[in-house]
Automatic annotation (TrEMBL):
Ranges for domain Knr4/Smi1-like: 13-100
InterPro entries named among the record's database cross-references: Knr4/Smi1-like_dom, Knr4/Smi1-like_sf
Lineage, top ranks: Bacteria, Pseudomonadati, Pseudomonadota, Betaproteobacteria, Neisseriales
Protein name: Knr4/Smi1-like domain-containing protein
Entry-linked Gene3D superfamilies: SMI1/KNR4-like
Length: 125
């Protein structure tokens, strides 16, 4: 898959959802993840995180109704019941990665996990 087409898909999502993806996430998704499935990272705590590819991100956000509950966050990956999120509020987007139990959305504060997607974990081949 071409890098440009992934960027174009993200741009369309931004317009449709009135959000802004952080630049490092756009780069990571277009250069690293692309259309790979699965794309897994392992954290320093030895937790395995499944990072959604370009074809899964919108569907996973729709399934969990993320934008209805947490409109400024976007689900980018998962480890069991734990979701991993980026902050996508337009003109205030952040490269920080957050986590939260998907059952606690809207009732608990997000936990900061990393300063950006590149510091979340290492790719498992």
């Amino acid at each position: 898959m071409e890098k440009k087409s992934i960027v174009e898909i993200l741009y369309i999502l931004e317009k449709e959802m009135n959000i802004k993806f952080p630049s490092l996430y756009v780069r990571f998704l277009s250069e690293e993840v692309q259309d790979k499935e699965p794309y897994e990272l392992i954290t320093e705590k030895e937790e395995y995180i499944y990072i959604y590819n370009i074809y899964d991100i919108q569907e996973r956000n729709d399934v969990y109704s993320i934008q209805n509950i947490e409109p400024n966050y976007f689900l980018i990956g998962q480890d069991g019941d734990i979701g991993y999120f980026i902050y996508v509020k337009k003109n205030n987007e952040s490269d920080n990665i957050y986590s939260l139990d998907l059952g606690a959305l809207g009732s608990l504060e997000m936990n900061k996990e990393a300063t950006d997607i590149y510091h979340l974990g290492k790719y498992i081949e």
